[in-house]
Amino acid sequence: MRAAAVWMIAAVCGLATFAASMVTRAPKLVDSRGNPVRPLMRTMAASGMLPRDIPALLEFITQSPEHLRARYWLALRYTWSGRTAEAREAWRAAADLVPRLIELEPQGRRAPFAHFVLGEARRELGEHDGGLGAYEASLRMYGAVLERRPQDATVIYYMAWCCHRMGDQIGAGKYWRLVEELEAEAGERGDADSFYRLAAARAMLGKTDAALGAVDALLKRGFNDRLMLGAAEEFAALREEPRFRAALTRMEEQEQSGPPPPAAAF
After folding, report:
1. Do residues 179 and 157 make contact, with C-beta atoms less than 8 angstroms apart?
2. Which long-range contacts (CB under 8 A, 24 or more apart) does 217-221 make?
3. Long-range contact list for 246-252, CB < 8 A, 24+ apart?
4. Is 37:53 a contact under the CB 8 Å cutoff?
5. Which is nearest to 153 in space by CA: 187, 178, 130, 129?
6. CA R_g for the chain
7. Across-strand partners of 10?
8. Per-residue pLDDT tens digits for 162-204
9. HEC profile of the chain
10. Which residues share a beta bridge with 6?
11. How far, in Å, are 18, 40, 252 from residue 43 at the CA level?
12. Confidence band (pLDDT; 50, 70, 90) for 1?
């Protein structure tokens, strides 16, 4: 996202497809490399696009303080960047937001993701007992969604993560295999999100060579978030693989040759 975030997940999961341009007004911020960041507008939230750079993401949250995916994305990026204190603050803000959203829509379409985020936040904050119940609720709700949408790989992706977090590796393996099956069937028709989930599922299943092949396909589809690929938990088993390290090096070289797209789907 994580995913995927998301991904894990983006969302999970909406974690990987990138847009080169969303708005056209004059820039108000610069990112961590000094590149202009275009101002954030409501159309970005409506489209599901979220800024990648932390300063721009903070501005987005200022405009949309109850945008849970944005707060989750911020917490992940702080975590991946090793900014521990800021990450804890971001995870706490996400955890505090979830009960209000669930109270408004206890069975709404955002409820499964909200419970998942609560689980992730409590896990990162060391509140493991509370996190377990949140994962259980998320898994149950996503299971109900899956009955209506049995081919939804994003839903299955989150179910795999819920099982993984709950220590149910048999259940997690079942769902990772389903993600792999669905995304492999999509083949060349798949977008970056699809290949992100495919690579993640194969990595989590221990299929190193197949996962590396999916990473190569992911990069060919324009994915260029080096921080996400290099730090996301689902790819931990690939980090010492020469092919994976070479892919990260290529991404770094591309970053140095020009600014990245200002927004990422999540």
Report:
1. yes
2. 217/190, 218/16, 218/192, 219/247, 219/250, 219/251, 221/190, 221/191, 221/192, 221/195
3. 247/215, 247/216, 247/219, 250/219, 251/219, 251/224, 251/226, 252/226
4. yes
5. 178
6. 17
7. 6
8. 999 999 999 999 999 999 999 999 877 878 899 999 999 999 9
9. CCCCCECCCECCCCCCCEECCCCCCCCCEECCCCCEECCCCHHHHHHCEEECCHHHHHHHHHHCCCCHHHHHHHHHHHHHCCCHHHHHHHHHHHHHHHHHHHHHCCCCCCHHHHHHHHHHHHHHCCCHHHHHHHHHHHHHHHHHHHHHCCCCHHHHHHHHHHHHHHCCHHHHHHHHHHHHHHHHHHHHHCCHHHHHHHHHHHHHCCCHHHHHHHHHHHHHCCCCCHHHHHHCHHHHHHCCCHHHHHHHHHHHHHHHHCCCCCEEEC
10. 10
11. 15, 8, 30
12. very low
pLDDT tens-digit series, residues 5-22: 433 434 434 434 433 233
Using 50, 70 and 90 to split pLDDT, how confident is the model at 264? very low
Residue 52: per-residue pLDDT: 81
From residue 242, alpha-carbon distances to 53, 228, 233, 247, 252 in Å are 28, 18, 18, 9, 15
How many angstroms separate the CA atoms of 82 and 222, rounded?
Answer: 25
- Cα separations in angstroms, 116 against 1, 162, 165, 228: 12, 7, 10, 19
From CA 263, how far away is CA 241, in angstroms rounded? 29
Cα 248 to chain centroid distance, Å, stands at 18
Q: C-alpha 64: how far from its chain's center?
A: 19
Rounded distance between C-alpha atoms, residue 179 and residue 169, angstroms: 15
